Amino acid sequence: MHQIQAACPGPVSRREFLRVGALGLGGITVADLLRMRASAGETHSASDTSVIFVWLPGGPPHMDMYDMKPEAPTDYRGAFRPIHTNVSGLDLCELMPLHAKMADKFSIVRSIAHEFADHGGGHKRFLTGRIPKTPVDTVNDNPMAGGIIAKCREDRMVGVPNYVNLADGGREGVDVFAYGSAYLGPSYVPFAVPGDPTAPTFKVPNIAPLQEVTGRLDDRLALLSGFDRMKRAADSGLMNSMDQFNKRALDLLTRDKARQAFDLSKEPEELRQRYGKHAWGSRMLMARRLVEAGSSFVTVLMENPYQSGVPALKQGVYNWDSHAVNCHIWDDLNVRLPIYDQAVTALIEDLYNRGLDKRVLLVVTGEFGRTPRVENSAGSQTGVKQPGRDHWPQAMSMLLSGGGLRMGQVIGSTNSRGEHPKDCPMTPNDLWATVYQHMGIDPERTFPDYQGRPMPILPFGKPIRGLS
Questions:
Q1: Which of 143, 198, 404, 408 shows a CA-CA span of 20 to 30 A to 229?
Q2: Residue 96: closest CA among 71, 65, 68, 69
Q3: Are strands 107-112 and 191-194 parallel, antiparallel or unpaired?
């Protein structure tokens, strides 16, 4: 049994932007991205570290997962009991028994908070490390951290996309969850891979340009035919007529490394079963394959558990927004948390087994927590009174694993009712300072905003103490 450790003592033109934005992410070819990045100026980083960022939109309930309060009043503590883990003093929800077996391989941060209770404001505040201009909507006025990393790593050409977003179909747009790159320009949005990887019809649509924009690369290559036809064209001598950007783009799109990184059939069936042959587990496995191949930043969306054969629950909700009007929170978590438990722990286990735990940092979080006090009201789908929790940015929990950091500990705490930080209060900026430190990125480095003013990568925040 491990003992818990004491922790934490204390630019493109506006016209170009709108033109590309109107096309949508799927319409931007890799060659377009390379051209825009070159025109914006090259930056360099020699580090081979990576981040897998698992996003739980809607706000996961901290008091029903990683910060349970069994001694709190009944209308606070919820329906589930805490269980012990293999780290003494680190207890968590009984619906996550696989977490309990490997708590020495992750750390829980319980004392991050901010002031934006709307989903839009919360997404922007959390994902950018800046105070948003408006407390609502998800159109960024500052770059998402993943875009910052893409900018700082834009010189990396390792045969796989450097910045990837694995999401549900229809949820991959940069403005769905404040993933926008703002003044950095559209070159620094993620390479989107939407859909359920377990579905028979699943494919990686952004590997080839859309039909309406193929002419931008070279009509003679007929790229819509897919990888094989592209490779035949590349061998035909037509490469000589392309500029350097098209050559680099085609190299990325046709190289076996890129093809194989997205191919889950390369994995043993036993490992695929360990992750879970559902959307969440398969995305996590794909993320591991991508960072192992060299991707720098991979976002994994865990939003709707009711897919891949999981029956829809009338009293459930598609994301983590567990208001009573949206769902019966205990019934929904009874379905959601076992799937989550399986996928997250499989990834942690796999990273350690493959020796990636020093190079890859895993972060699992949403934009805020849920109200410590349970509310009851009629559900919009059920028409009956049911329990739920509302938005609560004043306290939240998150999981970190790997990155060469100290695992098997709890960082910070909340008060006895889970309402606000008690020990070691922090903001999302402290998380991003930790991420940038892992990536070898100077958070004081600046990039010009729309007016040409130098904007630091992170205006404030320090790496989380106790993790290093």
A1: 198
A2: 65
A3: unpaired
Structural domains present in the chain: 2-456 (3.40.720)
Please name the amino acid found at residue 416. S
pLDDT at 224: 43
Residue 20 or 296, more confident: 296
Mean of all residue pLDDT scores within the chain? 86
In angstroms, rounded to a whole number, what is the distance separating the alpha carbons of residues 33 and 199? 29
The Cα 225–Cα 208 span in angstroms is: 9
Residue 62 CA to residue 75 CA, distance in Å, equals 15
DSSP letters, 360-401, are EEEEEE-S-EE-SS-EEEE-TTT-SEEEE--EETT-EEEEEE
pLDDT at 468: 87
> Over the stretch 372-396, which tens digit does the pLDDT of each residue have?
999 999 999 999 999 999 999 999 9
Q: Rounded distance, CA 1 to CA 102, Å? A: 11
**Per-residue pLDDT tens digits for 290-309:** 999 999 999 999 999 999 99
Residue among 112, 1, 5, 3 nearest 406 (CA):
5
Q: Determine the residue type at 32.
A: D
Name the token pair of 406. Answer: 């100290």
Helix, strand, coil shares of the chain as percentages rounded to 5?
35, 15, 50
The two three-digit tokens of residue 174, written as one number: 């940069």
Distance separating alpha carbons of residues 133 and 466, to the nearest angstrom:
32
Closest by CA position to 458, among listed 447, 450, 468 = 447
Cα separation, 302 vs 336, whole angstroms: 10
Q: Kindly write down the DSSP assignment for every residue of 127-195, as one continuous string.
A: HHSS--SSSS-S--SS--HHHHHHHHTTT--SSS-SEEEEE-TT--STTTTT---GGG-GGGS-EEEES
CA dihedral in degrees (274, 52, 430, 116; nearest 10)? -90
Q: How many CA within 13 A on the CB side of residue 315?
A: 19
Determine what percent of the chain is predicted with pLDDT higher than 70.
Answer: 79
**Residue 153, C-beta contacts closer than 8 angstroms, at least 6 positions apart:** 43, 45, 162, 163, 296, 297, 439
